[in-house]
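To fix ideas, we close by showing one paired sequence and structure record:
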Amino acid sequence: MLSALDAGLQDRSASRGGHAGTLFANLAERPADDDDAAAIPAMLVELPPKLQAQIDRDWRDDTRELTLIRLNARLGRPAAHARAIALAGDRDSPASLRVAAIRLLGEVGQPECVEGLLELLSSEPSTEIQHASLDALATFDDPRIGDALLQSYAYAEPANRGYLADVLLARKPWARQFLAAIDRSEFPAEQVAVEQLRVVAIHDDAELDALVKKHWGRVQGGTPEERLAEMRRINNDLRAGTGDAAAGKLLFVQHCGTCHRLYGEGNQIGPELTHANRKHTDELLHEIIDPSAVVRREYLSYVAQTNEGRVLTGLVVEQSLGSVTLLDAKNQRTIVPRDRIEALTESPTSLMPENILSPLKPQELRDLFAYLQSDVDN
């Protein structure tokens, strides 16, 4: 019953504002008094007395029951926010519990949670916790975040830089800071993948567009003639020798498996490939080099622009009266409350990047295609 109520409240708007503390430690330790209760706005919902009593009976300040914490947080109860904050910063708790608490703060946390989330980002060694903190921070419109993310980017591991770049580019002010830093040669432009820059055009800012053009050239796809030339070049490489399907499987996992599944390997953001027509090389090349030419309806990508200035792209995988869930090309789900969505439009481009084959050497191309066109798993 509580799970159903929690799901129902998720579909209602939760306003941010009020007082929720500063650092995680301070906030988690402070008791929830009457002033706190008045400061954090509750959801506009009246619960039946029996249900209210049930929730009160189940609550403990040291609870680790996620459903109960989420439910009380969505009801605007300070004790639940404090408990989520305590769990988020508790390194003795399981990572899955901490990630869930951090995501809850991104959904219904108060602006004062930002400092604690930034502290987690800078001090937490776990990549999983860092990524969850970034996802939560991305929901807050706070100028401190852009500064902090740029500092993190300067010393981030290569695996984390792409994640940081996505968050920075999703908001116009942060994108301006990031691209300006690249323009000052503080960071190499080649660290940012071209497909990550598509979101910049949605900001509709001439200064940002000029910086992108200066350092990366044309971000949009090539002309039909250029795509045809690319197909011919790759075809020549494929014909120049034979490929190793076993080596190709590793390349598939690295470059394709994030979105596609083949012989049970990979994800299903894009079409399943096991039973697809993979033997026709020209057709396969066309779909890879020009992925936006034909996109099946179930794989149409959408662009969500929020009233806070954030831009997100992905497949719409869930919808309710109160929210839209987007699944991006990195297999990350983001729940966006409908009252924060300023515009939700169909994207003119596929989630699949156009230059996915560019980093591959000729032998790697042959290996990949040997696996893609194989009859059995290797």
Observations:
- Confidence is low (pLDDT under 50) at residues 17-44.
- The longest strand covers residues 311-319.
